[in-house]
Design goal:
By secondary structure, this protein is mainly α. The chain has one domain. The chain contains four helices and no strands. α1 packs antiparallel against α2, α1 runs antiparallel to α4 and α3 runs antiparallel to α4. The chain is elongated, with a radius of gyration of 15 Å.
Amino acid sequence: MSLPEILYMIAYCLYLLGAGWALWRPDQRAAVALVAVALALDLGITVAPLFGVEALTFQVTGRNIGFNLGAPLGVLTWLLVGGGLVARWRGRMDVFRGMLLAALLTWFLCFQAFQIGLHVLPQV
């Protein structure tokens, strides 16, 4: 496993912990903070190679359906988590819960798509 994969896995696990805690006890600020930290970590890992951080690049030589599905799912995940955080800030707990649940599914699908794209499917 490469460094970015490990960091993405940590971000996803932090999100799972934070989202589960926030769905169980939405009044807990620490749970919401954990969700925000996971989102920031995921965004940071993704954006850092654009600013020249070579340690966080995947060194892939091509593309495949895993990458092509994972990228829009990743953006959708960021929008869902960010929108959920805004909804909670505005006091819309029903929207917050719905967006967290939707983000759980999309983040899982995104993570799996990238893993399949990296390790299973040929890159062309």
